[in-house]
Queue: 4 jobs
Job 1
Amino acid sequence: AVVDLGLPKIEGVEVIRRWRKAGRDFHILILTARGNWQDKVEGMDAGADDYLVKPFHVEELFERIKALLRRFGGQASSVLKFETLTIDLSAKQATVNDSAIDLTAFEFNILEYLLLNSERPVSKAELTEHLYEQDYDRDSNVIEVLVGRLRKKLETACKLSLIKTVRGQGYRFLHPSE
């Protein structure tokens, strides 16, 4: 569970205490704006396994979650497999049947972001914010071009259509079983 300390009706620390008192033994990471040492001690004392202060980088959050899973026996892997497609998030490499797919850094970052958010459509604006640190021209068709190139490379390599355009909402990675 990822818990914020500043919940609207009950403090996050109290939620954690109640879970632990009820015998719940899943991993808990506190994600909060409260960064003083007293809050950290209180959160860990309540039963949290890790503590991350906002603002944070999404990559750090993912790595902390994977570390929790490894530490407690879940062996989190940065390698994702979809039929013949293998994506290694750590090595930034996509392969089909052990043959590398030649992706640019932007194409791989789009693939990774769509994968990690595959439960929902991702808008062009959200992809732009993820790819570019500075304020970027949001009316540009660069995202459409990059997604189009990525889609073509994946379809050629995998013989599968893995990126769907969701009309009016953006793009979504489809698992081959969908």
Note: The chain is about 40% helix and 20% strand.
Job 2
Amino acid sequence: MTFGLRSLALALLLATLAACSSGPDRPEPTPLQSFAPQIQGAQVWQAQLGDVEFALAVAADATSVTLASSSGDVIALAADTGRELWRGNVGEALSAGVGSDGRYASVVTRGNELVVFDAGKLLWRARLDTRVVTAPLVAGERVFVLGVDRSVRAFDVLDGRKLWALARSGDPLTLLQAGVLLPWQNTLVVGQAARLVGLDPLSGAQRWEAAIASPRGTNEVERLADLVGPAARIGDTVCARGFQSAVGCVDAARGVLSWTKNVGGANGVAADEQLVFGADASDRITAWKREGGDVAWTSDDLRFRSLSSPLVLGRTLVFGDYQGQLHFLDRENGKPLLRLPTDGEAIVGAPVKAGPNIVAVTRDGGVFAFRAE
């Protein structure tokens, strides 16, 4: 199958999935139940970004949060107050972003250009020979890019010089969805089909490979089991979801699979020292024990509410939904602790921790920062 036909098949697949998620045959979302809040929380600032029509990844650290709109605006805000620190514009629509190390920020355009800013100043642009929907990773004075064909490229963050490239062959179909791309100590961890792969970030040489999912089915579409982001990294463990097939964890120090469980779902996972969290295709939330993968608890309270990928922080597990609600759940049992509204539009991507706050972005580009107990 040629790349053009693969792209067409992917577009049709995703359109079908989108229709299934919102069509008349999809069950009605579970009504939200009233409850007495168990923790305190409130909105502390709000900003406007512009429409977000791609798989936005929000880059955040202790002092700043960096975001991008579909139209090409790239913005850094102060994590504590929402004050604008800098703003840049790519000049065309985006397909992926944002990756940032706190200084350099990187996005990819729909025209397949990798663009890097230095504190808001356009530093360089480089043409890519593959489509990209996964936010670039900026780390160690390099920019790493994962293509939709799950090829990997590394560039020098200062001048845009290509350092190495690694192609992946043998996978006839891949998802047009953000994949797994993250650092672990001195290893670059990427998702390639149903496998987590550890690479040398200096050369692209493979160090290890571990399969999280086992593709099944009678055709290429049914066998799709690409790893989807975000993945979770805790100590030496990296946990990820295989699209509609499995959730599993890998020991990145040894490059071996720790456990895998067959479960559907299309969004990424979160984890802490004890548990791994995710919602399946029906938005049933499950917590698995990080050691061994046994189920610790499940919750049906938010089924069919088109949940985002989660954030786990202290005692709370946070999901966004299709109505812009942020649900703060008890990470020990899934019981509701707090519910806070945004602007009524769907939450895009996973909520993130930014300094003392939790930041969520909606489809209309509303940026909301909350502080919870």
Note: Residues 67-167 form a domain with the Lipocalin fold (CATH 2.40.128.630).
Job 3
Amino acid sequence: MKIIIIEDESLVAEELAASLKNCSEQIEITALLGSVKEAVAYFKNNPQPDLIFSDIQLGDGLSFEIMQTVPLNIPVIFCTAFNEYALDAFKANGIEYILKPFSTEELKMALSKFQNMQKLMSGQVAQQYQKAMETISNLQQPHSGTIMVKYRDRLLPFTLDKIALFFVEAETTVMLAHNGKSYVLTESLEDLEKRTSRFFFRMNRQILVNRNSIADVTDYFPRKLKINLSFTFHKDIFVSREKRSKVLAWLANKSS
């Protein structure tokens, strides 16, 4: 059984790996991953394991963001010190939710649950499970989801309708909320574009705008567009003539 551990505290990750190996000689720990960014890069370039043990609050965000970025149809056992994420965990392929500090007995019970599930996953049942995981994965894509923002020692949830735009300044990604506050993000504008493409449009290399932030657009010589926001912003937003038709089509579609 190949297992990957996602945990930002190295000592905790090593302790969990040792405890899992003591549970069964058949367990192989294939990777210890310490952040959302590292996990996304790993899953994009390596085969998926049989099972994932994951913390929820990582140094650069929530582990749910991994499932939102990379399509994973792998059962996940979440090990965390916080119980307020239980519902989200089971929406993100979770089959068990263990609160820290965990015991060996709890790990054995979680593994037993996974093994029993594996026995049931044969034939048509396996296909139904696969479809269910794909459906959950699609639901996790934040077309109508939430962006988690790390602010000081807290994680703040922002639904997409509360976000005015994302922009890059001095090589830093910044989120501007409709309440006027701005927050620095660790994600790139490219990643945010993929996650929010239903409601946001990449106007140019520096800015990603929510439809509900746009007051109107005006022609700008030669054959460009100027995006006028419904609030004051410190930068003018221009769309190239190459993107002009796509932006107009997107606006027309969103308005219909």
Note: The first strand starts at residue 2 and ends at 6.
Job 4
Amino acid sequence: MTTAPPPRRPSGVREVIRYNWPLYAAGVLTAAGGWAAARHLPRPAAVLARAGAATAAAHLAVSTLATWRVYDRSGLHTYDWLPALLPDGPGTHLVVSAGLDEVSRPVSARHPAAHQHIADLYDPALTTEGSIRRARRHVPPAPGSVPARPGALPVGTSSLDTVFAVFAAHELRRPADRRALFAEVARALRPGGALLLVEHLRDGANIAAYGPGAWHFLPRAAWLRHAAEAGLRPAAERRIAGLVTAFTFRSAGG
């Protein structure tokens, strides 16, 4: 069993901005540039430039407020919502990370007697987002993490009660890699075992909050399809802060 080091403050809006600073910088420059350019344009063009600047500023404000609400003010990082999805606890479990592991420590703290494994899927060829590279430089892998591939998790067949994939699976941008991961999860779970999947979804609420950035997320139907292809059935679902969805999928036989 891995030994958890002293807890680190989980990512909030400050860290999200730090990891995604090029996007925020682009938004600020677009808003400021549009407003400055409007001063030198004829009236019709100036109105359009100011409207574009206002839209960019509003998008920045709304997305930052949404991020603060989810990551700083909700119970997302406390895992108080976990018993509703895993009433019997996680048992022997695997935490799947795609470069930023903020799951293993709080879960281990809540369930110190549960045996924990950590699989690190980080691979610059698979997890291509610059934000992941910046986050990884800031938050190194947890002690006991084992490098892994979507189609090769470092655990035995039917050896796990639970697999945690929290904000990790969507970082696999190729559908084939996600399908491989779900198939591996199904292989590793005991009969009736659970996959706990936590993700933002590409839905109305997230599009309203994050605009075009919501296309980085997958729609609910895509996750249900991946689970069904792997033989995992939906068992429970919970919305956190109105913008994050936690699913429990169960393997057959339970």
Note: The CA atoms of residues 39 and 46 lie 7 Å apart.
